[in-house]
Amino acid sequence: MTETLIQKRIPLDQYAALLGAGEIEELRALAKPLRGRSIGMINSTAVGGGVAEILTRLVPLAEELEVNIQWEVMSGDDDFFRVTKAFHNALHGAPYHVTPRDFEIFLAWNERNRARLPLDAEFMVIHDPQPIALIDDRHDSNRRWVWRCHIDLSHPNLAVWDFLEPYVSRYDAAMFSSPEFSRQLPISQFLFYPAIDPLSEKNCDLDDYFVAEVLARYQIDPERTILTQISRFDRLKDPAGVIRAYRIVKRYFDCQLVLAGGSASDDPEGAFVLKEVLREASNDPDIKVIELPAWAPLEVNALQRASTIVIQKSLREGFGLTVSEALWKRKPVVASAVGGIPNQVIHGQTGLLAHSVEGTAYQIRFLLSHPEIAKNLGDQGHEHVKENFLITQKLKRYLTLFHILTRKT
Amino acid sequence: MSAVAPAFEFSTVAYLTRIGNQSATTLAEFLSGLEECSDASIFHHTYQTLGSHHFLTEKFSNDFAQWVQADANRNDLAEQLASLDIRDYTSIAALRNDLCRIVGDYCNTNPKLANQSALKQFFFCESMEVTFALGFSASTLDEFRAGIQDLSHSSFFFHFISSRLRLQLQTNDFSYWLTNTLGLNTLAANVNRIDIYTNTLESVRAKLLRLIDFERRKA
User: Fold this and answer.
1) Where does residue B89 fall: left (phi above 0), alpha (psi -120 to 50 degrees), or beta otherwise?
2) How far apart are CA A317 and CA B213, in angstroms?
3) Per residue of chain B (219 residues), what is the pLDDT tens digit?
4) Strand, helix or coil at A350?
């Protein structure tokens, strides 16, 4: 069996305190008819990445509802993961010259995993392209197989997509994070948002003393305005653009800028971008460039909670769950209208969208001038996340899907 | 004395959004989509979206108006679409007719605008629903109040908003039961009058509880 990092179970009643008893009773009622039926989740990594992070929380939550759920991780060698990484980028639209050898490697590892993994659950949920060909092991038409795609397929490299599409079409359904990410397919496609766990270390309530200690550690003044972007050091997150927007804002408001992201030590491009950002920020003591360890959820939580405004000025984005993390903390958010961000930021209702450096700066200035509007956006953003982007809602979607698939049997 | 009055059975609904194969980038395509999409799609973009954005009390009433305003940049048409009140409808067909009439009239009056590209595509989606009983009921006003107090948003939406389509009456499950089982016509009418567009679901619930408390004090 594969080693997965299942988190310890959190009693459902702890969620009831946040969401209301009725919401949890409803989850229990929805899960009750599914007790005893088996669910298998398969992805390609036990740690790192959003899918594993969600599954570590989703699986114990489903177990709390007495649902028989099993999470397995497929295996592969360096060649396999080189190919699947290239597939991943190509499906996002990057150029890639695929070779027949790449397809052979991909299929060979899927075949090995078919022999190794238990694939006999009543509902099989396959995450992303890596394990997609496990569907070849589907022999019993009464079992339901669904494919959860976390990738934006709106402009895929067609050589890769044309190879994968016949596999996708053999599933009972596919799930995407946004309608824009979906494809024309002969199977049902459902909208499944990514989710955050309000009780995880990244999102739980924090002691004020801890927040103050984190600010002191990074020499951030809690008495002055704090603008923050949390993201890895990647050009697509446009840290240079954030600095330019901050400099415009600074002409009107005294403020500090925090750019914090995970370690770039294993990512040569990330390390290069970090150097650029440090160089750009070097003459301004109010720009705090913070290289966090790879897993620093409490620090991220503290920096978000201490922020006056949270920025997500990405040039491209998958879903951008850091936006939901900030909204859950009732923070006003100014973000780019790319990828899944507009699903989270309804302009003027749950945050403000921008399309340029100048627009980002203007929206920040607007919110700093109107703190009551900023507060209202943060409060409504919190409700939006509570209704749509929490792990409990995600589990509810899965349970609903299993009910619908059962109906089709 | 009559037989035992039927209890109010609390139920709820879970929705899953199915992504359709239809989309629109112009108002003309949008009109075609409105004409051809499924009833479940009209429901999704009007009723269900109101439920999932229940915390917003201004500038948001349905997905159609939102897209026309934010992406097609036609504020005048958006205002007309936003003014449609789903409480006026007991069938999706009637709601679809009005949506098509409004967009059709606009396209006929502004033929050049009908084919202008919007900033973003509109994707027609559908709501697929699973309804289920919550396993508790109310036979008295006190039990009814206790049930409503802790009800989930989905259940509240199911009984208070989408019930019109099920009942095919200009009322909701709560008012229907208050009238037909407890004979509390005035309370039922006051409950049915609560504005779901200018209140959040939580403030609707608070108003409903206040109305029930007022009735209990009279008894």
Assistant:
1) beta
2) 49
3) 445 678 999 999 999 999 998 999 999 999 999 999 999 999 999 998 888 787 776 666 899 999 999 899 999 999 999 999 988 899 999 999 999 999 999 999 999 999 999 999 999 999 999 999 999 999 999 999 999 998 999 999 999 999 988 888 889 999 999 999 999 999 999 999 999 888 888 899 999 999 999 999 987
4) coil
**Chain A residues close to B59, C-beta within 8 Å:** 348-349
Per DSSP bridges, beta strands A188-191 and B8-24 are antiparallel
pLDDT digits (tens, 9 = 90+) for A196-214: 999 999 999 999 999 999 9
CB contact under 8 A, B53 and A384: yes
- Distance separating alpha carbons of residues A236 and A230, to the nearest angstrom: 13
How many interchain CB pairs under 8 A, A with B?
86
Whether the CB of B145 is below 8 Å from some CB of chain A: the reply is: no
Percentage of chain A exceeding pLDDT 70:
96
Residue of chain B whose alpha carbon sits nearest to that of A403 = B130
Residue B60, both tokens:
């948001």
Is residue B31 within 8 Å of A203, Cβ to Cβ? no
Could you identify the residue written with the tokens 């403030």?
B203
A372, A376, A381, A384: CA torsion to nearest 10: 180
Query: How do A173-176 and A144-148 pair as beta strands?
Result: parallel
User: Does residue A266 surpass a pLDDT of 60?
Assistant: no
Which tokens in the block code for residue A118? 């238990």
Return the structure tokens found at B183: 């004979």
Cβ of A399 within 8 Å of Cβ of B14? The answer is yes
Alpha-carbon distance A191 to A312, whole Å? Answer: 23
Closest by Cβ to B18, choosing from A23, A190, A380: A190
Question: How many angstroms separate the CA of residue B50 from the nearest CA in chain A?
Answer: 12
Identify how many contiguous H helices and E strands chain A contains and give both numbers.
Answer: 15, 12
Q: What is the CA radius of gyration of chain A?
A: 22
Task: For residue range A168-193, list pLDDT tens digits in order.
Answer: 999 999 999 999 999 999 999 999 99
Half-sphere exposure (CA, 13 Å, Cβ side) for A90? 21
Q: Residue A179 and residue B12: Cβ atoms within 8 Å?
A: no
**How many angstroms separate the Cα of A145 from the Cα of each of A117, A195, A236, A389, B111?**
15, 22, 34, 24, 47
Tokens for A12?
A: 């459902």
Helix axes B63-70, B75-82, angle to 10 degrees: 170
- Pairing relation of β-strands B122-138 and B8-24? antiparallel
Indicate the SS3 state at residue B54: coil
By C-alpha distance, which of B132, B124, B169, B158 is closest to B31?
B124
ipTM of predicted complex: 0.90
Give mean pLDDT, residues A298-322. 94
A290/A215 Cα distance (integer angstroms): 11
Tokens linked to A256: 């500090």
Query: So what's the pLDDT on residue A4?
Result: 58
Average pLDDT over residues A85-97: 88
